[in-house]
Amino acid sequence: MTATPRRTRRAAQPAAVLPSLPDDFAVRVIAWQQRHGRHHLPWQNTGDAYRTWLSEIMLQQTQVSAVLGYYARFIERFPTVQALAAAPADDVMAAWAGLGYYTRARNLHRCAQIVVAEHDGIFPCDPDVLATLPGIGRSTAAAIAAFSYGVRAAILDGNVKRVFARVFGIDGFPGDKRVEDTMWRIAEAVLPPAEGIQPYTQGLMDLGATVCTRGKPACLTGERPCPLQSLCEARSTDRVMELPVPRPRKTIPERAATLVIALHADAVLLQRRPQRGIWGGLWSLPLVGEMDDVLDAHPLEVGAVRRAAQAYGAVSTVEMAGALTHTFTHFRLYMHLLRAEIATPVALNDDWRWVPLAQLNSVGLPAPVKLALETLVQPSLI
Predict the structure, then answer these.
(1) pTM of the predicted model, to two decimals?
(2) Gene3D superfamilies per the record (predicted)?
(3) Buried b (16+ CB within 10 A) or exposed e, 330-367
């Protein structure tokens, strides 16, 4: 009988040694925020966890300047978490349209429903509980708890990672677990007492967004004061533009698809996308055939599109309309569009709807689909 060799257990790697952490890090950030930070954003100083949560979700991967208008319209339409939870998903998607990353909108709606159903409409104050809700990660949970309830908790969003990488001279891509773990340990070690947590948290965000920026940090341009400049390892070693270390470059996969712009009496046919996948749950132009990584499989020839369009009704004409390219987070999509005139539509199920071109702005359309319609259909009608 042959003995099975025992698998050796790999020893856990020791945690990275933290750099020297100045005692006055938080004091500097708070003093700067009180004098130079942002104090009049519409969600600030409200004590309203709903508004804080909404702003934090919108600000994920989106700049403040782009969020302000969406936030105002969203609050007007859904003034409370109860109103958002009760709203139809289509209304939420329509209000979100243009902000991108639509998974955020689906998680936002689901999160509101859970807060109403399981927490009596009140956002929990415990960051660990907040982090179990859809769309809320560890950093977002800490920000909500700090701003809404004054809870002493550490944040680590993209702006903060950039500040830490430069100030403490941290090499390595911040998205790597080992580097991120080191940053979390720093984030917790430099926290101020609870009474200073709100200006400190806001100050860190403001520093990364307005001073320690990716492209033109203020320490190099002299446009704004930086309270951490004398502590900054990157500044003292002329590595400001080298840190943080960028994501390792990977080839972006490419796909192609054929979509049909089916028109009848100044209305366009839209199809609801499956919940999973790109544009999940949104209304979009019908996809004909598959979304392929074989780029020359598209566009499909006119005859194939005509046969597919016959499912929508009697087809009078089909012609090439144009092409657009859209880059998602993980791949690039080449969209080939054909225009089909439908003389007599047939009845379709609830996943299909004819929408007047003049009313498209009320529908939650993915930005590239909206662009395609504005570009390739008579713009005066939209």
Answers:
(1) 0.83
(2) Helix-hairpin-Helix base-excision DNA repair enzymes (C-terminal), Hypothetical protein, domain 2, Nucleoside Triphosphate Pyrophosphohydrolase
(3) eeebbbbbbbbbbeebeeeeeebbbbebeebeebbbbe
Tell me the angle at which helices 197-206 and 25-36 cross, rounded to the nearest 10 degrees: 80
> pLDDT, tens digit, for every residue of 61-111?
899 999 999 999 999 999 999 999 999 999 999 999 888 888 999 999 999
CB 161 within 8 A of CB 225: no
Q: What whole-number distance in Å separates Cα of residue 288 and Cα of residue 297? A: 12
Instruction: State the Cα torsion 196-198-201-204 to the nearest 10°.
Output: -70
pLDDT tens readout for residues 258-282: 999 999 999 999 999 998 888 888 9
Please choose, from the candidates 76, 26, 101, the residue with its C-alpha nearest in 3D space to the C-alpha of residue 282: 101
* Fold adopted by 254-381: Nucleoside Triphosphate Pyrophosphohydrolase (3.90.79)
State how far the alpha carbon of 329 is from the alpha carbons of 101, 250, 326, in Å: 9, 12, 10
**Is 56 an annotated catalytic residue?**
yes
Written as one string, the DSSP assignment of 215-268 is: SS-HHHH-SS--TTGGG-HHHHTT-TTT-SPPPPP-PPPEEEEEEEEEEETTEE
**Which residue out of 56, 180, 233, 290 is catalytically annotated?**
56
According to CATH, what is the number of the domain 25-236?
Answer: 1.10.340.30
pLDDT, tens digit, for every residue of 196-216?
A: 999 999 999 999 999 999 999
CA dist 153 and 144 (Å) reads: 10
Residue stretches of the chain with pLDDT short of 50: 1-2, 4-5, 7-11, 380-382
